[in-house]
Amino acid sequence: MKIATYNVNGVNGRLPVLLRWLQETTPDVACLQELKAPDEKFPEEALKELGYKAIWHGQKSWNGVAILARNTDIREVRRGLPGDPDDTHSRYIEAEVNGITIGCLYLPNGNPAPGPKFDYKLRWFDRLTAHAAELYASGKPVVLTGDYNVMPTELDVYKPERWVEDALFRPETRAAFKNLIEQGWTDAIRKLNPDKVIYTFWDYFRNAYGRDAGLRIDHFLLSPHLDSRLLNAGVDRHVRGWEKTSDHGPVWIELADK
């Protein structure tokens, strides 16, 4: 089973790129972030033509998450994280596909830091951690994937000394990610590539992609049931080089059957 995550940076504006990537790689499940579209503007029919059923949680101009499943059923479990009924951002959706619980998330950026946006990021991280603890305790096979907007270590960022004050790399953010991991989750990319420089995001400016000046901010966290089934993981880096593409590359894992 192949599961992918992809921050599309505008699902309609980048639709040709998304459809091309889906046709070329045919993931069984694809989690999307930054739809930047209200629910009624989600391109359900175009995805259906490729064999994908979808659930989505949209928002006009900002945020938005979706889960696609190819030639199989998808059952929505939750939209939005618990813990803050006043939070109107569309940043989390959860489903069951083929017996696996999949949480698709778009964690807040948090800049400028310090400040209200950074405070919101850390509160959201706390809510994610609390919900993740419940999922972990359920004993079910769980994947938590998406754009976490955090570089966990210096290995995950080009020239880390330039990022020390950024919300994605501040000690509080990295500590929050570490706290989440220490519940017992496996960072799939790092498990298979413990010492390799791997990036998932390259800014549009200063030829970042051409210079490979990137960040690893899109992550797969796996519960123990799935850790033992992990076969492969990687980044479709070449997609970042396509015309009118997202500033993220798709990230994927392959799991063995039970």
From TrEMBL:
* One Pfam family cited in the UniProt record for this chain: Exo_endo_phos
User: EC number(s) of the enzyme?
Assistant: 3.1.11.2
List required co-factors: Mg(2+)
InterPro entries listed in its UniProt record: AP_endonuc_1, Endo/exonu/phosph_ase_sf, Endo/exonuclease/phosphatase, ExoIII-like
The protein's UniProt keywords, in alphabetical order, are: Hydrolase, Magnesium, Metal-binding
Domain of life, per the record?
Bacteria
Q: Which GO terms describe its molecular function?
A: double-stranded DNA 3'-5' DNA exonuclease activity
Q: Which residues form the Endonuclease/exonuclease/phosphatase domain?
A: 4-248
Q: Which family does it belong to?
A: Belongs to the DNA repair enzymes AP/ExoA family.
Looking up PANTHER family in the UniProt record yields: EXODEOXYRIBONUCLEASE III
**Matching NCBIfam families, A to Z?**
exoDNase_III, xth
Q: What is this protein called?
A: Exodeoxyribonuclease III
Organism expressing this protein natively: Mucilaginibacter aquariorum
